[in-house]
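Structure (tokenized):
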């Protein structure tokens, strides 16, 4: 389906590129917000991502469209962070555990765990926080993260492990869902 959309967009069909934007805008925004922590900056990065993607679409050669867009968004966000050269405050990362039961105690516990995890991720250094976002929000593989950030695969694995350990007991033991509905945040990844 992505290949068809890309082909149609390359042939000048604007509706096809609009479909690409519609399909990936939430994911691109989530990645940008995860890296930057700022909703406003993330909106700007998302917009710039799709502008660059439109211009660079002819260079997409059999690559996963989703990963390509996330890489563009991450690079733009990291460039912005470098320009700002100060630590960006992390807005609460809204992690929602996998739906349990309608038991009020379970719902309260899940909410408390979500808040604790958000605080733990918020306290991570930007390098670790971006690893968590790329792995669990953008759902990139270790290799895709390594390629995107131009890091050795071993360093990506090491940073993710350290990030999870830094979250301590707040790291979920089972897979949950991020607020955008994507699978994520499993200690077994």
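Design, position by position:
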């Amino acid at each position: 389906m992505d290949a068809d959309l890309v082909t149609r967009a390359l042939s000048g069909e604007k509706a096809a590129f609009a479909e690409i934007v519609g399909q990936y805008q939430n994911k691109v925004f989530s990645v940008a917000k995860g890296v930057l922590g700022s909703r406003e900056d993330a909106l700007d990065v998302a917009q710039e991502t799709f502008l660059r993607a439109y211009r660079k679409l002819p260079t997409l050669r059999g690559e996963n469209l989703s990963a390509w867009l996330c890489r563009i968004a991450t690079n733009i966000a990291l460039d912005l962070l470098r320009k700002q050269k100060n630590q960006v405050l992390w807005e609460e990362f809204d992690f929602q555990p996998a739906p349990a039961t309608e038991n009020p105690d379970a719902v309260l516990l899940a909410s408390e765990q979500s808040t604790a995890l958000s605080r733990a991720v918020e306290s991570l250094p930007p390098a670790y926080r971006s690893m968590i976002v790329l792995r669990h929000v953008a759902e990139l593989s270790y290799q895709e993260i390594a390629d995107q950030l131009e890091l050795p695969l071993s360093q990506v694995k090491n940073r993710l492990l350290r990030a999870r350990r830094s979250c301590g007991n707040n790291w979920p033991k089972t897979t949950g869902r991020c607020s955008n509905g994507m699978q994520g945040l499993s200690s077994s990844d």
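Reviewer-requested clarification: The first strand starts at residue 95 and ends at 96. The beta strands are 95-96, 176-178, 183-184.
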